[in-house]
Amino acid sequence: KQWYQRRVAITAGITKVDCTKMFGEFYVYLSCMDRCVNSNCPLPDTPIKHDACPGQYPDRIYSLANNKYLTFVTKSDSQAGYQNNYFQCNNSRCVDYSKVCDLTNDCGDMSDEQNCKNHIQCRNEKNHLISLDQQCDGMFDCYSLSDECNDKCGKQMLDHWFLKGACWLFGLMAVLFNLIIMVQIAVSVNGAKTGVMLLTKLLLGLICLGDLLNGVYLVTISIYDSLVFGPDYCEKQAEWLSGTPCALLGVIGTIGTQLSLFSMTALSLARVIGISCSDMTAPSRVNKRWIAIIVATLTTVIACSASIALVPLVPSLEDFFVQGIHYNPENRIFIGFPNKEKHVKVLSSYSKTSDLSLDTTWHDIREGVAKMFTAKHSTLSWDNVHFYGNDGVCLFKFFVRNDDARRSRQTVETAFNVVDIINFQGNLMLWIVLAINFFCFVVIGVSYILITLQTWKSAVDSHQTQNPETLRKNKKIQRRITLMIGTDFACWVPFIIVCYLHNVKFIDATDWYLFFAMIVLPINSVINPLIYDKNDTILGPTFSVFTRTGTLIYNSRVVRYFRNSQRPQDGMKLQEMLEKPCSAA
Questions:
Q1: 487 and 524 in contact (C-beta within 8 Å)?
Q2: 422 by DSSP, 3-state: which?
Q3: CA 306, 311, 316: angle at the middle one, nearest 5?
Q4: CA 571 – CA 573 distance, rounded (Å)
Q5: Which SS3 state, helix, strand or coil, does residue 493 take?
Q6: Is residue 73 pLDDT above 70, yes or no?
Q7: How much of the chain exceeds pLDDT 90, in percent?
Q8: Is 133 left (phi over 0), alpha (psi -120 to 50) or beta?
Q9: What are the tens digits of pLDDT across the range 230-243?
Q10: CA Rg, the chain, in Å?
Q11: How does 237-274 read in b/e, with b if 16+ C-beta sit within 10 Å?
Q12: Phi and psi for 362 in degrees, rounded to 5?
């Protein structure tokens, strides 16, 4: 009673407030003074009894409470007088009011926290409580990840139904269409009489192979999203982001994208060289020299694509590309998959050293963590959250976040308060890849401008412009080329511009990543085979299927019924019309 009385003046005139962000004695005081919204007093209605808290407070002084209960008080250490602000746990132990509703199991049986409304309990973790603010804040605070993986904010690999549908559709179409074109190219290779023609066909085959790999990637991601993980992805994402399947999918997707782009660049240069040389000499047939040129070109294209995809996974470069570490759940010292900054703070506090910084290698960090466990504990095991573990879709991430290891950092302070300045320029490799891709599109654009001019000049010189059939074929070829270049530029150039603006911190495009990765860029893998399909092998049957389906729907009994603005003269109903034969209807 005294505890309330000496504080009652403080709350004079205060309206009810939200106490979910208050803890300990402050929470107890406001809730028991009925100053909290939707928070009840966690204390019992009757004062603590005189014989409570056995073995504690030997200097207790007995007193009468409310003229009816015998209780006890103790001398206050902080001020003259006595106090009885003790909470009795269900196991008869007593704790101070400051330890009630403070997110800590001070009683040992959780009774000091069970009547509090300022926390949630982690799933399958009896003694682990977190504040309400820590739920759905984007950071893992529960070992079970239940604070972020729940009905309120749990995420899937692909969160939106539109992304799921687009991923399945584009993936299946890319696989089917590119397989058809690759078969066509394989059949026509034997008919290539000149070296330029053979190189052109093989480069077209590599473009289709890259688009096919993108289709395989999309279908595989869809299978993992819909069939393997489903709504359970959130709780399993640590294993996924640090696992081999995610890394393999990232490599496949990156190789597919770069292989298609590099092959298209090489094809553009080959056509420019071929047209330029055809004016001076007759096209040479396939010989050893051409075979060597073709092998060197294909090997270079494949090697460059594979290098960009595999370099981030090289173990010796982990300090540039590893995003964090996922430890064995049995070693409960880190939650989720902490990054380097979290490791440095914990190790600095544990070892009381100032030698650790964000420049510390992952090897030294793992050794430091291993020293925190004694031999009686289970063996410490971990998996690196690799370069492609930036997101559940496991792609090369051009949109670098501030906490990514790929951002260049300059350490200013170390020890217990690690302060570092993040270089706005990001990582060198990111800019190299963006520059290479942009340069490729410049080469492609310039090449086809030269091809168009040279082709028209040759047609004029040879008087082919007076031949309607030849002119029609040339226009058809140019339309295909324009469409191909236009779609590639429409997908890649805006993406490169957004990447630049994001990485110089002009905009924050983090939320746009999935849209670009799963829709904008993969759509080229569907469009390209349609452009290369000279015989309309794909478009013809596809258009025919859609036409027949539309015709069947249009001529169906239900559509004919609703299409008819007037009801039948004999008053027949819809059911009667459906049962009547088509000829009679």
A1: yes
A2: strand
A3: 150
A4: 6
A5: helix
A6: yes
A7: 12
A8: alpha
A9: 888 888 888 898 88
A10: 35
A11: bbebbbbeebbebbbbbbbbbbbbbbbbbbbbbbbbeb
A12: -65, -30
* Mean pLDDT calculated for residue range 46-73: 83
The whole-model pTM stands at 0.76
Sign of CA dihedral 382, 387, 393, 399: positive
pLDDT in tens, 351-378: 887 778 878 888 888 888 888 876 665 5
Instruction: Write down the mean pLDDT value for the chain.
Output: 78
pLDDT of residue 468: 64
pLDDT of residue 524: 80
**What's the rounded Cα separation, in Å, for the pair 110 and 175?**
57
User: Per the structure block, which two tokens stand in for 321?
Assistant: 């590309």
Model confidence at 225, pLDDT cuts 50, 70, 90, reads: very high
Cα–chain center distance at 530: 30
Quickly tell me which residue has 């030997």 as its tokens.
58
Residue whose C-alpha is closest to residue 104's, from 92, 91, 118: 118
Please tell me what DSSP assigns to residue 114: T
Q: Where are the alpha helices (DSSP H) in 130-160?
A: none
**Cα(249)–Cα(213) distance, rounded to whole angstroms?**
10
Question: Residue 18 CB: number of other CB atoms within 10 A?
Answer: 12
Q: Shortest CA distance to 416 belongs to which of 472, 354, 372? A: 354
- On the question of pLDDT at 566 being above 70, the answer is no
The crossing angle, in degrees rounded to 10, of helices 161-188 and 195-223 is 150
Indicate whether 2 pLDDT > 60.
no
DSSP 149: S
Cα 251 to Cα 257: distance, rounded to the nearest angstrom: 10
Question: How far is it, in rounded angstroms, from Cα 259 to Cα 369?
Answer: 40
Give the contacts of 555 (CB within 8 A, at least 6 positions apart): none
Amino acid at site 30: L
Window from 129-133, 197-201, 409-413 with minimum mean pLDDT: 409-413
pLDDT exceeds cutoff 70 at 256: yes
State the Cα–Cα distance between residues 230 and 159, nearest whole angstrom.
10
Q: Judge whether 235 and 144 are in contact, CB under 8 Å.
A: yes
Rounded CA gap, 194 and 293, in Å?
13
Neighbours of 233 (CB within 10 A): 20
Number of H helices, E strands in the chain: 17, 11
Please give the C-alpha separations between residue 268 and each of 79, 103, 253, 446, 452, in angstroms, as whole numbers.
86, 65, 23, 9, 12
Structure confidence at residue 538 (pLDDT)? 58
**Considering only 198-212, 300-314, 507-521, which range has the smallest mean pLDDT?**
507-521
Q: Is the pLDDT of residue 466 over 60?
A: no
CB 174 within 8 A of CB 525: yes
d(CA 577, CA 585): 7
Q: Calculate ∠ Cα 489-495-500, nearest 5°.
A: 125
Nearest to 110 by CA among 97, 127, 122: 127
d(C-alpha 40, C-alpha 112), whole Å = 14
72 near 131, Cβ under 8 Å? no
